[in-house]
Amino acid sequence: MDHDAPLDRLRCAERSLRRRRWRVGNYWAVEPPVAADLVGTAVQYQMWHALALVGVAWLSDDPWVPDGVVGVAGGCFLLGILLFCGTLCATAAEGVPLFPLSAPAGGLLLVAGWIGLGAAGLMRR
Predict the structure, then answer these.
(1) Which of 121, 120, 113, 86 is closest to 102 using CA atoms?
(2) Percent helix, strand, coil in the chain (nearest 5)?
(3) Rounded CA gap, 76 and 56, in Å?
(4) What's the average model confidence in pLDDT over 38-44?
């Protein structure tokens, strides 16, 4: 089994995004290299935090971990992914974020999700 295959696919997708021209109407929303970097960053954050959601699902079955801690961590991850990565993609496509301070709010939610996941992991016996 080739363990580098998922990373090779991700690199291939990132290269193809770098070659795409991000054009909206008759003007450039964001310069193509910058847009590709934004989308590449969004994809990487989505991938890592999706793995964190797998950890949340794994800890949700543990009887020693309170459901509230795991539920809050999962909700923070989900909303954080939507806000942070969605803002990066919207900025790449349209040149305008979803709403002011949406990326920092999403980043704070992702940090809160990691803190909740760490707390749930420490409660596990």
Answers:
(1) 86
(2) 75, 5, 20
(3) 11
(4) 89
